[in-house]
Design brief:
Strand order of the largest sheet: 1-7-8-4-5-6
Oligomer: single chain
Radius of gyration: 13 Å
Number of helices: 3
Structural class: alpha/beta
Order of helices and strands: EEHHEEEEHEE
CATH superfamily: Transcription elongation factor, GreA/GreB, C-terminal domain
CATH architecture: Roll
Strand content: 25-35%
Number of domains: 1
Length: 133
């Protein structure tokens, strides 16, 4: 389960099309549920503070205040030890579509909850002119 404490989440048309092609069953179903509730915008219109695919963000974990930099990746690109988190992972799903300042919550593998605030968007492909990343 992923919960975000934010306004409406946003996804670009290109990210949506690519994410819908991931298929089902499994974690893909949960992602598709998340996507159904998001505002869809052209890549050229996405605000510069929205977490899109391939965005690099800095988050601060609520309980520990530990900072972490993560890049939102497609499943085949994920390398968690290097900070590349899959959009199908609980934290990846929680981050997609958030804005700087938003709080994401997700369920840990053991059943506990975790939460982190997006404090910085260090890189967003669309804001850097890469509309096909």
């Amino acid at each position: 389960m992923t919960t975000t404490v934010a306004g409406v989440r946003t996804v670009t048309e290109l990210d949506l099309a690519r994410l819908l092609r991931l298929g089902s069953p499994g974690p893909h179903d949960e992602l598709q549920d998340d996507l159904a509730d998001m505002d869809v915008v052209p890549s050229t219109d996405v605000p510069g503070d929205v977490v899109t695919m391939h965005s690099r963000v800095r988050i601060v974990h609520v309980e520990t205040q530990r900072q972490q930099e993560l890049t939102l990746a497609y499943p085949h690109e994920a390398r968690p030890a290097s900070g590349l988190v899959s959009v199908l992972s609980p934290v990846g799903r929680a981050l997609l579509g958030l804005r700087v300042g938003d709080l994401a919550q997700w369920t840990l593998p053991g059943g506990g909850m975790s939460a982190a605030r997006v404090t910085d968007l260090l890189y967003q492909p669309e804001a850097n002119g890469d509309l096909t990343a």
